[in-house]
Design goal:
Elements: H1 2-18, H2 22-41, E1 50-51, E2 57-58, H3 61-73, H4 85-97, H5 103-118, H6 129-141, H7 150-169, H8 178-194, H9 200-218, E3 240-241, H10 271-277, E4 301-302, H11 305-308, H12 314-326, H13 342-364, H14 372-390, H15 395-412, H16 417-432, H17 440-454, H18 459-468, H19 476-488, H20 497-518, H21 548-574, H22 576-585, H23 595-604, H24 610-618, H25 622-633, H26 642-650, H27 659-676, H28 684-702, H29 712-718, H30 730-742, H31 760-772, H32 786-807, H33 811-830, H34 834-847, H35 856-865, H36 867-883, H37 890-903, H38 911-915, H39 952-960, H40 973-989, H41 992-996, H42 1003-1018, H43 1026-1046, H44 1051-1068, H45 1074-1090, H46 1098-1104, H47 1106-1109, H48 1113-1134, H49 1141-1154, H50 1161-1172, H51 1183-1195, H52 1201-1213, H53 1215-1228, H54 1231-1255, H55 1261-1274, H56 1285-1308, H57 1318-1340, H58 1346-1362, E5 1364-1365, E6 1368-1369, H59 1371-1390, H60 1402-1416, H61 1420-1424, H62 1438-1443, H63 1449-1457
Parallel strand pairs: 3-4
Antiparallel strand pairs: 1-2, 5-6
Helix pairs in contact: 2-3, 2-5, 3-4, 4-5, 4-6, 5-7, 6-7, 6-8, 7-8, 7-9, 8-9, 8-12, 9-13, 12-14, 13-15, 14-15, 14-16, 15-17, 16-17, 16-19, 17-20, 19-20, 19-32, 20-32, 20-33, 21-22, 23-25, 25-27, 26-31, 27-28, 28-30, 32-33, 32-34, 33-34, 33-36, 34-36, 34-37, 35-40, 36-40, 37-42, ...
Length: 1465
Amino acid sequence: MGRLKSGIKTIEEREDCDGYSSNATLACMINSEIGAVLAVMRRNVRWGVRYMSGDDELEHSLIQSLRALRKTIFTWKSHWNTIDPAEYLVPFLDVIRSDETGAPITGVALSSVYKILTLDVIDQNTVSVKDAMHLLVDAVTSCRFEVTDPVSEEVVLMKILQVLLACMKSKASVVLSNQHVCTIMNACFRIVHQAGSKGELLQRIARHTMHELVRCIFSHLPDVGNSEKALVDGVDTGDYKSTGLSTEFELGNRQLENGNMMSEYDGQTLPANHALNASVGQPAIGMDENPIGTGAGKDTVTYDLPMMTEPFGVPCMVEIFHFLCSLLNVVEHVGMGPRSNTIAFDEDVPLFALGLINSTIELVGPSICHHPRLLSLIQNELFRNLMQFGLSMSPLTLSMVCSIVLNLCHQLRAELKFQLEAFFSCVILRIAQCKYGASYQLQEVAMEALVDFCRQKTFMVEMYANFDCDITCSNVFEELANLLSKSAFPVNSPLSSMHIFALDGLIAVIQEMAERVSNGSVGLEQTSVNLEEYTPFWMVKCDNYKDASQWVPFVRRRKYIKKRLMIGADHFNHDPKKGLEFLQGTHLLPDKLDPQSVACFFRYTPGLDKNLVGDFLGNHDEFCIQVLHEFARTFDFEDMSLDTALRLFLETFRLPGESQKIQRVLEAFSERYYEQSPHILVDKDAALLLSYSLILLNTDLHNAQVKRKMTEEDFIRNNRRINGGNDLPREFLSELYHSICQNEIRTTPEQGPGFLEMTPSRWIELIHKSKKTAPFIVSDSTAYLDQDMFAIISAPTIAAISVVFDQAEHEEVYQTCIDGFLAVAEISACHHLEDVLDDLVVSLCKFTTLLNPSSLEESVLAFGDDTKARMATVTVFTISNSYGDYIRAGWRNIFDCILRLHKLGLLPARVASDAADEPELPTDNGHGKPLKNSLSSSNMSSVTTPKRSYGLMGRFSQLLSLDTEEPRIQPTEEELAARQRTLQTIQQCHIDSIFTESKFLQAESLLQLVRALIWAAGRPQKVGSSLDDEDSAVFCLELLIAITLNNRDRIVLLWQCVYEHIAGIVQSTVMPCALVEKAVFGLLRICQRLLPYKENIADELLRSLQLVLKLDARVADAYCEQITQEVSRLVKANAPHIRSQLGWRTITSLLSITARHPEASDAGFDTLLFIMSDGAHLLSANYVLCVDASRQFAESRVGQAERSVVAVDLMVGSINCLAQWACEAKDTMGEEEALRMCQDVGEMWFRVVQGLRKVSLDPREEVRNHALLSLQKCLKGVDGIHFPHGLWLQCFDMGIFTLLDDLLEIVQGQSLKEYRNMEGTLVLAMKLLTKVFLQLLPDLSQLTTFGKLWLGVLSRMENYIKVKVRGRKSEKLQKLIPELLKNTLLVMKTTGVLAHKNALGGDSLWELTWLHANNIAPSLQSELFPDQSLEEPSHGGKAGGDVVSDETGPHATLTASTEVPSGGG
């Protein structure tokens, strides 16, 4: 047609150029069509010219009109829009209408009309176009012709279809009336039906034309406003009656010209008449009685005649759609023609109607909502029929029904809430669950349809929100999800397409959730629902169903209520009293029960035991009677027949068996029914009596024990004069009788929630509910309820996918399952569902096959050949890397896989060292030799235990090496390919990212990861040798250390676990091995890295190093040098960060141990030198500890004597720090704090003295003498600090005197041979004694214990002068000691300390002095005190006054002591 129009325009353009008008062109075209018709007519002698008397030529009127038109058309000068189309159409239409013409002539005439229509000559602006179009439709639909042969007949029928379709597609179609559009549809349908006995081409064309007509007609609906005048206001029922024009036409029922043959249809009515007359309560289509637009049925709403004659719009669409729905009401077939195929017809007509309906819905979509009549047809009649055909045994029919429902759900779901619930509950679930004998093909179709629904973006969300969260509805979402999960399980059977369909549906649901999550469209924060007080649960409302902030909490609240009601129902079924008490406790029933609340609980709670409900309602207790009446008030019986209302009422409980209970129940029912549907009944008593009568009739008719059944007459007779003394209409009672006869009232209703079969009474109730239901909740792409939904389906979904994945054999199925696993993981992570994610990880790890015991070589090859295992492995680690924040227990399974890969040698060589994320440190510490095995480098292998190489490339090099002497088996190409696939798989896993990215894990997940790693390292291995176990433990420890270092900011979280694990290794190891090495150096490494950043746990970190001190001696000796190097590195890098005494105690303890270790002492002393040199890192917290460590190095004979001398110098040099601290304390602190600081300095100084005293006993002469001299220097005190007298006395008692006694003991002991030149040491010791004594004399002489101190000095001089060194007395001491005593006594005399009868000591000091002095040097008294008179000189005489100055004691005595000769020193 498009090509024809294009040609016409070209002709018009050409003629305009040549000066001709387009009118002439059109005239020529019409002329050619006239010629074509005449040419065909001349073939038959009937149309020849006949001559009458007078030579008048008589022609047939049809030929005359055509020839007249041929003469006229060229005379028309005006534009064709101004010419009445009837003038050039009527001659052709006359031919079409004539019953004298044969099929060829009629066919050519129809072609001519079709051509004129396609020229677009006629449009809505053409003169008299309305009458012309009506005339055309009437003529074509009344077409008459003689059948000459079947082929010609089919051609004419096809041309009729062609012309009618062209009428609807032409621009002038808008002027067609509603009635004429109905007429066109009538004619086309009759041809469709008649084509069933014709050729296949006609059948296809006829059906295609019907589809095109429907699309053409209904395409106007979106443009029709809801104020369309053709709409009957206030009507919303689905039953209609039309009173439009009746169209009478016959097709193919013609007698042939010769009269000796009849058409196949001669004398018969069309089979369509019989088939459609068989439909119950519906008009016949296509016959004179009831074509479209002329139906006559009861309970219908009529369009008036003027409305049907208006330009077509909603009325004709309603009629056509009603007609299409009526085609689905074919239940039985009577009077079928002999050539009809009943089986074919069973499917054919409904399928055809379903296809037309589907096209209509696809086209008009949501615009139906604006037209109540069309919407009502869909809600009631269409859906009722769809429910019926959905349960047919034809897979094709079910498929088409599901397609229509899918379209309706997509476009009109907001208006079809309860219809959709019924469809899924009564059709999809029944068929897919293989109930009621559904074939496998039907189950497959139902499952495919369900999957299509699941692929709709918001389908499942809306099912959950509108049904699962509604107490009056079944749990559609949950039931569908359970169906999908169960159907995916291949129970005792191989994997089939049904399982795959179900899996696709499940994964579609999951992926929709995942898509919402990945788009960041997470809904409102979920809050727990609690009912604080009683609110009638059946009255919970939402203010705005379009605002998610309101409807989301609303549906969650309803779901909570529904769950609680279900729990309450379970309690009620066990004990009604406890059930009601439970509901009172949850605030679903008031504390004081009222009849309405209990009645609503019975009415709206699914799962109640209907026997118990019936017993309760039938009870004679006053409260129970009130509940019964409230229960009846919950029903809506408006406009229902009595039997339907009674059926609905008795379906909700079991009618009690006692007559009194039945009486009470029926009284409540009758009262309610009469309130809402009085109609024929005059009062409630009439309703009660009739209800009783129906119960009796039901029992009589359907009880097998009743032999003589009640007849209709018996029933009518039994109900005489019950309506207020009058009879009820016979028709009314007859209808009730037949209803009960055909459909039993079930007084024992089905138990359990939901319904499995859609009965007429239930459908009526559904329509009633749909009129009063709350708005349908339409969701968007935000994950408002996904968490609630996912919690329901996650476990069965994981199980179903796992089973399919396990049994699948094709890679595309593997990938589908993997997609499902990843979607589950994404949703679980988004909603923080750790348990679900753990379950998923556990399931996936089983498929990796890494945990299966087998030889290493076999495992590598098997893994490379197993696509499923490799895909599962990649998925496990993808989930670990992407959603590790929400993995808890699953880490254990993941580490099982990692350990297995490690044993197989498939992990990257640097997976642990790379994970530490640490830059290389220099291997030379600057003071000693390079570190051999520093953990700061990438080399983590043991220095004592060679580690086996499992690297994949290492295996290749071994297998392919040509340098080995032993012959090796070359791997096959298949093995190489398998290994290559394995290597690629491991690379895709990015296992190292688990550890390098662990710093981004949430705290709880990180802690669980660490615990899992410790668990994997520490548990006994069931398979493998001890070397394998140790290797695994070492590997796990490497990872643990790497994770710890990567999470330094959260070390507090991890430290306890890490420390306990390392401590367990250290304390349980008695021999050197790689594991304890890794533990010790790992611990040191952690301290090195973390001390600069975590001063708050510095003490904890350093205290952990005490584990090193607890090492077994053999272990400690093996690693002492490396440990010392690491400690040195730690101190040099972090000395400023070590501030506590506890930390320094650990460090100095470790350093002190190395003093006697040949290999470690140099590094240890180097570290101590770093700390103490110039007091760089000396603190009050570590001073004493460092002094003690220096003493131990000084005493150590492992190193050279020079090192011991340096150690002594360190001790002495540290005193400068004491002076500095004291000075700073005076300047910056308060008096009290400064005083305390000075006391602390004195104590620290005394520790130096004590240390030097001990070193002064060293067997090595150089060290011993240097220590003595250093001690003498130290005993000068600290500049700027005045030590208390008690400290000096302590210094003499515990320092100098002890030293002298110890030296004397050494000289006199058996070990003298170890000491060289002790004589010189004794000389130095004596000089030390006298110098210090004289230095402190002014202060010490004031003490009451001075006599005791002086006696100690004298006694030690006396002992030393008598000592024998190597068997003979020392000449040096014999000479030195008297001189020292003389000088001392001279100073004491000069200062007045020693005088006869001195006040400080009296005669006792004097006598004591000379008692010992005379033993040393008898001549000293006479020499120093020549005057022996008894007169006591006055205290502070001239001699004393000349020596003692105003300065403090130490300075004055220094002046005196400078005169003491050095003696032999």
